[in-house]
Amino acid sequence: MTHDLRASAGVFQLECFTGHGHTAFVFFHHALSDFEQFDMVCIVDLLNRIRWDKEFGKGEFVIGYENHMLDQYVYVPFKEIIFEEGNHFSFELINEMGEFITIPFHRVREVLKDNKVIWQRPPHTP
Known about the structure:
- The chain is mostly beta strands.
- The chain has one helix at 43-52, and strands spanning 2-8, 11-17, 23-29, 61-67, 72-77, 90-94, 100-104, 108-113, 116-120.
- It is built from one helix and nine strands; from the N terminus they run E-E-E-H-E-E-E-E-E-E.
- It has a four-stranded antiparallel sheet, with no helix packed on it.
- The longest helix has 10 residues, at 43-52.
């Protein structure tokens, strides 16, 4: 995976080349500068940092993912997400009907910490 970083107007853009012919553009809002020397990372790396870095992981994290059936973003507390060991493509959670659902990482659109957006993908273009 390679990265290309650009900054403009307090928003950082990171272009991640996944090596599978896909390119993900990720925006990091200036709010990240509130944390000590945070390296610009793709969503999997950010979620892992929330999980494993005790200092960075303090606070209330919320993940916003795109629900294609509802045609809207759905926000869930990070603590409700289930990570399967060795799965590098998705996570699971239990929906309001008590069913396990799988959310691919590429459908994550935003990450909030203490009600501030700290990570965001650009909107889809029609």
